[in-house]
Design a protein that fits this description.
The chain contains seven helices and six strands, in the order βαβββββαααααα. With 215 residues, it is α+β, with helices and mostly antiparallel strands. It has one domain. It is globular. The protein binds zinc ion. Zinc ion binds next to loops.
Length: 215
Amino acid sequence: MKMVDADPAVVEARLAAGAYSCASCGSGRLRPWGFARRRVLRRYGEPVRLRPRRSRCGSCLATHVLLPTFALLRRRDLAEVIGEALLARFVRHDSRAGVAKAAGVPHPDTARGWCRRFRSNAAGLRASFTTLAHELDPNLGPLEDRGSPEADALEAIGTAAVAAARRFGPAPVWQFVAGATGGLLLANTNCPLRHEVARCERARRKEGRPMMSTA
Ligand SMILES: [Zn+2]
């Protein structure tokens, strides 16, 4: 699985140009290799149909499903929906029921699960995104304390997103987060940010595109 641009036309063009590198061997280039199974995601309760591209490495022959950065790995709801729910819960302190209702999920347990997982990942996410923010903007001062591990993590995420936008051009925040975490924002494993700065620099030099569309 590899996170790619949210725009399918851009993905096709970049696949055709051999612009995506293989995460398995690190050196091969990914080529088109059919499609993964269709799936239906949700955006505030509305269906979003997706048929992710499948790709194969020209060197090691590993196949990779290409997941657009509007989604997170193994989550039915779009990254922006989940992200806004986290902000509502941990920054605005909305009720659990209110958060679930605003997200348009059929059962409140879904939104509760996001919050629980984010809470257990909060310290690691804060550290990773703080580092990323300072790599993107070396003049950045220390981040403000927001009073809880979850709010601190969201502060670091927001600061990194602003720094990325300043450096590479504006981009939807939660697509940036999905790209930077490799879709693993709410995974139950650590999600080391993947040398995002180096990747961005390479992509920017190549084609001057913002950060979530990087190889
Ligand atoms: Zn490979």
